Amino acid sequence: MKIHKPRLPFKILFFLIFFIVFASGCKHSKNEVVVYNTVDNVFSEPILQDFEKKTGIKVRAVFDTEETKSTGILNRIIAESDHPQCDVFWSGDPIRAQVLKRRNLLAIYKSPAIEDIDKQFLDPDGQWTGFSARARVLIYNKNLMQQELAPHSVFDLTKIQYKGKVAIGNPLFGTTSFHIAAIFSVLGDEAGKLFMENLKANGIVIAAGNGDVKKMVLNGEIPCGLTDTDDAFGALESGAPIGIIYLDQDSLGTLIMPNTLSLIKNSPNQENGKKLIDFLLSRETEARLAVSCAQMPLHSAVKTPDCLPSVQSIKAMNIDYSTAAIKLEEIQLFLKKWIEN
Amino acid sequence: MDRELIKKILSALPSLFFIIVVVLPLASVFAVSFTEGGSITLEHYLAVYHLQTLALLLKSCVLAASVAIIATIIGALFGYVLSSTDLPFSSPLKLLFLLPLFVSPYYLAVAMHDFVFLLLGNTRMLNSEEAVAAILIMSYAPIPFLIMSASFANINSRMEEAGLLVASKMRTAWSIIFPLVKPAFVSSFVLVFILAVAEITVPSYYLVNLFPTELFMQFTAFYNHKTAIALGSAICLISNVLLLMERSFLTNAPFLAIGKKGSTKRTATLGNWKYPVLVVAVSYLVFVVIIPLVGLSMQAFRESMPDYLRDKSMPAGYLPLENELGYSMNYLYKGFALLKPVILDSLLYALLGSLLICILGFVFAYRSERKKIKWMDYLLLLVFAIPSTIFGIALIKFYNRASLEFIYTSAFIILIGYIGKFTFVASRMIGNSIRQVPYSLEEAAELTGAKSLTRFWYILFPLVLEGFFAAFIVCFIFCLGEMATTIVIYPPGNSLLPIKIATSMHNTPDGLISAMVFIILLLTFSLLGILYGIKKYFIKRTIL
Questions:
Q1: What are the chain A neighbours of B461 within 8 Å (beta carbons)?
Q2: Is A30 left (phi over 0), alpha (psi -120 to 50) or beta?
Q3: Do B176 and B326 touch, CB atoms closer than 8 A?
Q4: Which of these, A100, A103, A149, A156, lies nearest to A128 by C-alpha position?
Q5: What is the largest CA-CA distance in chain B?
Q6: How many angstroms separate the CA atoms of B204 and B216, rounded?
Q7: Is B317 on the interface with A (CB under 8 A)?
Q8: Of A212, A207, A68, A230, nearest to B499 (Cα)?
């Protein structure tokens, strides 16, 4: 056996490592803004790139994943709170902004771009601003259920004819949890708990998330389920025989969930953060999000695509987002037990 | 300064580096979990360690042990038949067997969900511990396969032949082969157990309540970091107890001699069993690899649907990823357009990360196997076993400060994440290789006056080069697919391949996601091909 000295050029490799890593660290520019974003990068990244083109301000974005139930960056903002890195938090719903608000991590910023947005979608303290909304809807598979026989109210879901026929996402996470918190805040705790127990008694099927509810209904595995409009229109886009029902139009109303924008307190690029918020709140951005991912514009002047209902045409559930977010924290232990038992 | 002292300081540098860069951040968050409002308290630990949680922990351990045993047996069997027998088509089968290692268990769970629906029309059966175990076995079986293959390949054929002269095949296998591969077998079990016991995404997706889902819930529903850290400590504790048990189990493990290097490798003849074994191997791979791969390819090569909400008056390029004519592009093309900006960075970081990991892993393995300094193994395991989100949060808390911002906001933080997560794997794999090199070779060199560095560089390193390379490949695959930690720490404006996919998963069509996964598989395979070519050339030049 003859052995030669290995000829790995270690020194060169080490220099290479440090050069490349340092180079990647030196990409930062002073004229920049950092945005943490829970909306899919496919839809939000082109909009952020447009902002870069228009203003010359470099956008450095962090995105979130469904795998972490879109709470990865929220946890990151909380962990970074001693030395904030994020300037703007773009959330797909108001719950997360409320969590940060309750932890006193948000700055006050009232953008001039909110003139024709309904006050219901604005934080009264100016710590988050709503735009481009989704709604909680019921989707049904037209091959398994006729529209007139489908549930038209959340309370119908506890009726015997829908036993084992309805799916919802895991109520501990995401917009499903917020939907239930909203129902609790409207009905009160006792009636809310009774509603949940009745749902369980009626054999409600629990899926991992809204996307899975969509998949189950689309596949015909279950006749109907609760999900968000972006998932519902995604199912329509795939050509599936899906119908959409805006629930409780004669009673409670449908839960509307706006995207929210917040400026992070003590972040390094406050001025650029404000510019980005103004840009994202523009009518043009809302119009683009309406088409790319079925988000309903909240600016009354923005045209809604023909096949998407305008937010004004839907009877919205009359809730206070802050109260509902607080309620969510209160009922989470109940929901955990509800799931486990 | 004393020469010996300088030597000692130099030899302690890698351990110091690991402790300062990786362990210290973790230690600081653990310390914080014992405080509340400025005073020391056990509140977070007492709040979570009650009978119900302990029952969940037990359930998770039983599930992880089952996964580890089955995955190790499958890996060992395939490792043996594909590397040490005359089974036809063993090379392509080996590659196929490794495939699940390239995708995260979460994607496999999603793919299996779709497959079960196609097969049975119902997926509710997947909401069970058995389904979680099945996914984890499929995901992790390639790890024991790699470790056991290397171990079987390194058995000195003369030992086996000597046994066959006086005993039956079965007796030889039990009395000679099994004791020789026992350390690799145990290492495989330990690695898979730790990965399985800390796995969060699969049980969450299949709605199975296990200990890690409890921890996941503390992060995602309650945003309670301290309680999550308290829960994570249990996984670390169990993993280290397992390492202690492994140590005592392997205390009397036999010394393994080098096989390939110096003697010819023995290839067992399967005889009449050749084709039945081939059928079993192919059936397993069809179910675990080929069906999901075909499903993935079919979706990836589909033409994308027209955008439902598109208005004819909208200009071309108005929607994301439209071509200049305003039409949606093929999913594969779209997927490539999305991934293109991050391909180079991802490959570079994974290559650099795995190189650093293997260098550190080599040093730690050498100190553990040759110098019998074992305490570092426990630290490496502790970081490996800690749930990734906790590790990520620890890195944020430690590095996110003005003085260390150059690390936190650069790719250094990604490399630190990789080093923390995978140095244990490299150290174990390289350690197994070192254990197989007779110490007498180094002693002989020492007698001729060779200094320790010379002995290391001329004797040991060339002889463990194959093990080093295997560890490099495994770490490269792990780094390239790592997301659980990097998603929490990746610098704003940067992205990596798995992050790019995961951050598109919510509303993006399944076809596009499949296309992106397909592209990553192709890339990984191509790069592995290049690396194997380099290895072949390099080892040929080193050992003749």
A1: 6
A2: alpha
A3: no
A4: A100
A5: 85
A6: 8
A7: no
A8: A68
A50 contacts in chain B (CB < 8 Å):
none
The Cα angle at residue B119 between residues B505 and B304, in degrees rounded to 5: 40
Query: Tokens 């409320």 label which residue?
Result: A98
Residue B206's SS3 state is: coil
User: Among all residues of chain A, which has the CA nearest to that of B202?
Assistant: A67
* Distance from the A292 Cα atom to the nearest Cα atom in chain B, whole angstroms: 6
Dihedrals phi, psi of A37, to nearest 5 degrees: -140, 130
Coil, helix or strand at residue B401? coil
Q: Cα distance from B134 to chain A (closest Cα, Å)? A: 18
User: CB distance B221–A177 less than 8 Å?
Assistant: yes
CB contact under 8 A, A75 and B219: yes
Residue B413: closest C-alpha in chain A:
A21
SS3 A264: strand
Each residue's pLDDT tens digit, B73-132: 999 999 888 888 888 888 888 888 888 887 778 878 877 887 787 778 777 788 899 999
Identity of the residue numbered B320: P
Give φ, ψ of A131 to 5 degrees.
-155, 170
Look up the ipTM and state it.
0.81
pLDDT (tens place) for every residue of chain A, 341 residues total: 454 554 555 556 666 666 666 555 555 567 999 999 988 777 888 899 999 999 999 999 998 876 666 677 888 999 999 999 999 999 988 988 998 999 999 999 999 988 888 888 999 999 999 999 999 999 999 999 999 999 999 999 999 999 999 999 988 888 898 999 999 999 999 999 999 999 999 999 998 888 889 888 988 889 999 999 988 887 887 778 899 999 999 988 999 999 999 999 999 999 999 999 999 999 999 998 888 888 999 998 888 887 788 888 999 999 999 888 889 889 988 998 898 87
Residue B391 structure tokens: 């590790």
| Number of inter-chain CB pairs under 8 A, A vs B | 226
* Interchain contact, A82 vs B207, CB within 8 Å: no
Q: Do residue A332 and residue B221 have CB atoms under 8 angstroms apart? A: yes
B 412-431 near A (Cβ less than 8 A):
412, 415
